[in-house]
Write a sequence for this structure.
């Protein structure tokens, strides 16, 4: 039990580190949550993870320049993975060489390789993504119509969740609509979504999942996207 708790604590600490970096980078666009939607989304994610207000405020101060020690940069890596899959990795770092070395070591382990700039990024679109528990049938039909009016481009079901895709500019409108109906999203953020997802064979899919898992565990990596269906 002690070992399990230690692993859980380590995982929680890693999640907090990523959330703090997201807040810090987002706060470069201003410390006002009302006008900075990216910061608002990052703070909402941190609150959902039970991060303390003091920790959130310190991250905002650092990013907005209040403490004078902003050193974090955003870095994007484009990758060719198993089975011809494309990956985009978003990282936040204070040391480009350290992060690049860590990424390359992971890729070598999984027989993947870096791609040139925009070699795979063009295969993805920025989309607002909202997930919430699947509403009852009695409210779903009318809700979907209102979501479309608010800017939803696609609505899917997956494992008991409703997944809503929007243009990035419509994400806040969709969130406000759900809030007004007392529906609380489990997740809401702008992500990269594959324009034309591909299917790979079982062995390649397993290798790809292992690669994504190792990338996601890397301290500086914030997000990993693939075009696997």
């Amino acid at each position: 039990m002690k070992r399990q708790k230690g692993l859980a604590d380590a995982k929680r600490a890693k999640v907090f580190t990523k959330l703090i970096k997201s807040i810090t980078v987002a706060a470069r666009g201003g410390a006002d949550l009302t006008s900075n939607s990216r910061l608002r989304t990052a703070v909402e994610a941190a609150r959902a993870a039970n991060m303390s207000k003091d920790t959130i405020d310190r991250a905002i101060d650092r990013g907005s320049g209040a403490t004078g020690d902003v050193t974090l940069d955003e870095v994007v890596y484009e990758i060719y993975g198993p089975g011809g899959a494309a990956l985009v990795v978003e990282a936040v770092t204070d040391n480009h060489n350290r992060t690049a070395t860590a990424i390359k070591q992971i890729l070598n382990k999984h027989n993947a390789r870096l791609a040139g700039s925009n070699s795979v990024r063009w295969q993805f679109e920025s989309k607002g993504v909202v997930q919430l528990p699947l509403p009852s049938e009695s409210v779903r039909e009318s809700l979907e119509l209102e979501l479309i009016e608010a800017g939803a481009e696609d609505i899917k079901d997956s494992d008991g969740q409703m997944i809503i895709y929007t243009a990035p500019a419509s994400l806040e409108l969709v969130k406000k609509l759900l809030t007004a109906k007392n529906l609380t999203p489990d997740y809401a953020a702008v992500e990269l979504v594959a324009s034309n997802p591909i299917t790979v064979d079982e062995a390649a899919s397993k290798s790809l999942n292992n690669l994504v898992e190792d990338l996601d565990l890397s301290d500086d990596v914030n997000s990993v996207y693939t075009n696997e269906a």
